[in-house]
Amino acid sequence: MIARVSTYSLETNSGETARGYAPLTMTEAPKSRRAEYAAATRTAIIEAARLLFARNGYFATKIEDIAVEARVAPATVYAVTGGKQGLIRTLVDLWSQAPIVAQTLSRQEALTDPDEILRDTAATVRAMRETYGDIMRLMLTTAPHHTEVAENLRVATKRYRDAIQAVAVRLGDVGGLREGMTVAEATDILWFYFGYSGYFTLLDDNGWTYEQSERWLVTQAATALR
């Protein structure tokens, strides 16, 4: 089942809720109905594009299809999101800048047990895969055939690897790496297990559950690092 654009991700990247506008605080003025409608329209278009891209692929999905799914005019899709390429950039940001990543790295600053750090990392990667796996698959399958999608994937992968590198640094700080292992080597090992291919291979090719995959990846990564 394809996940829809989540309230959580929208709150992080655009300040919107599932209804399309931020909750009021004591210092905020109420938003106009026009602003509420504009935000709700944008959310509907993003959700429609995500659903159709995952179902039909990037190339087979037309702006007209997205417009029908979102119940707006095709011109509105272009005006609000910049068309298909603008939608790809938006989906990439929803995934690669999801707040759970920064929250995980911040939480790990207080952890001193290497195994706990690895378990925490695996749980976050699993949560990301469960929530944004459709976007990852879309980017990985489309990038070889589309220059701009490939560039967006490059940006997302840089963010992903930077987060993995931060985990490697933390593991080094708490004595979680084998003597002589550099942060660069640890990053490569962590990427092997927690990058794109680890979960997808176990889930898609082997038919494992998320729980099985998570446990195995933690065990193997710990062995490889120490």
UniProtKB/TrEMBL annotation:
UniProt keywords, alphabetically: DNA-binding
Organism of provenance: Micromonospora auratinigra
Ranges where the HTH tetR-type domain occurs: 39-99
Domain of life: Bacteria
Listed GO MF terms: DNA-binding transcription factor activity; transcription cis-regulatory region binding
Keyword DNA-binding: yes
Designated name of the protein: Transcriptional regulator, TetR family
Location of the DNA-binding region in this protein: 62-81
Pfam families: TetR_N
